[in-house]
Design goal:
The protein has ten helices and seven strands. With 266 residues, the chain is of the alpha/beta class.
């Protein structure tokens, strides 16, 4: 989706991902056709690029507040680490993912001759099974440094219990640590069309062996994060995303309400 944005959507780009296409290699040609034909593909693509853009904007801000480490929970084919802007400075980056997914990504990086920067550490962990503190400790995360976490397109695949453990770990880190994550809206927060759309995408995902386990409504989620102990909790709705990033576009690109963003600061 991030690679397609570069070739299918008008300027200005919401996210300029110069790495994604080369990471996909030959597969991108096949994928481009699929993306062009798939119904609602632009809506889904808009959510993918917005959530990366929003997380990277929040990360840039948090670095100014003294954050020194970036942990990507369920990094997938995220390319931030391989196109680091100058403002990244001495940031340390930890990519957490299933061991098999991470091996696949590393093979793709090697095949595309994309070097792994020295500030990047891979953390092969299934965080439903292995505790994040344990995995990240073994990988060298410094628990005394304010740390920024992103979890993009991941929450729905986790049990709420595993997600809560991840949130509690963020809370155990120094003040100014922050987590930015996307989540799929619960049925009660969706229109009928939204409920049908979610049911279709969730069924496709379940058929591929990746059922959607956890969804939230914005206000109860804000309450949950506050009662867990986060000092600042900021929902970033689809409307807010459309007015911040997508206003006045000729191509009409805009995000759907199905997936929303949240930021919570320790
Ligand atoms: C839809 S992809 C999103 C990838 C990336 N964050 C992005 O925005 O493109 C979901 C990612 O979460 C990872 N994931 C899901 N459950 C996980 C778990 N229990 N432990 C580790 N990684 C997990 C998957 O392997 C996959 O890389």
């Amino acid at each position: 989706m991030r690679a397609s944005h570069r070739i299918l959507d008008d300027e200005p780009k919401i996210l300029d991902d110069s790495i994604a296409a080369s990471l996909l290699g030959d597969e991108f040609d096949r994928y481009k056709t699929l993306v062009r034909c798939f119904p609602f593909s632009a809506l889904i693509r808009a959510n993918f690029i917005m959530r990366s853009r929003y997380a990277e904007d929040r990360l840039a801000e948090s670095l100014r507040d003294g954050v020194g480490q970036y942990v990507l929970l369920g990094a997938g084919l995220d390319t931030f680490a391989y196109r680091q802007p100058e403002w990244t400075g001495s940031l340390r980056i930890f990519e957490v993912d299933y061991p098999a997914t991470q091996t696949w990504k590393r093979e793709k990086l090697a095949a595309a001759n994309i070097p792994i920067p020295t500030n990047v550490t891979f953390v092969p962990v299934d965080f439903e099974r292995i505790s994040l503190p344990q995995g990240l400790d073994a990988a060298g995360l410094n628990f005394h440094v304010p740390t920024f976490f992103s979890s993009l397109g991941v929450t729905q695949y986790l049990t709420e219990d595993a997600f809560d453990h991840a949130l509690k770990f963020v809370l155990s880190l120094p003040p100014r640590s922050e987590v930015v994550f996307s989540y799929v809206l619960a049925g009660s927060a969706l229109s009928l069309a939204g409920r049908v759309g979610v049911a279709v995408v969730a069924a496709i995902s379940a058929a591929r062996g990746e059922p959607w386990l956890t969804r939230f409504s914005p206000q109860p989620l804000v309450g949950k994060l506050k009662s867990m102990g986060f000092s600042e909790v900021k929902p970033f709705s689809a409307d807010a995303a459309n007015s911040r990033y997508f206003q006045g576009r000729r191509d009409g690109l805009r995000v759907s309400r199905i997936e929303q963003m949240m930021s919570a600061t320790v």
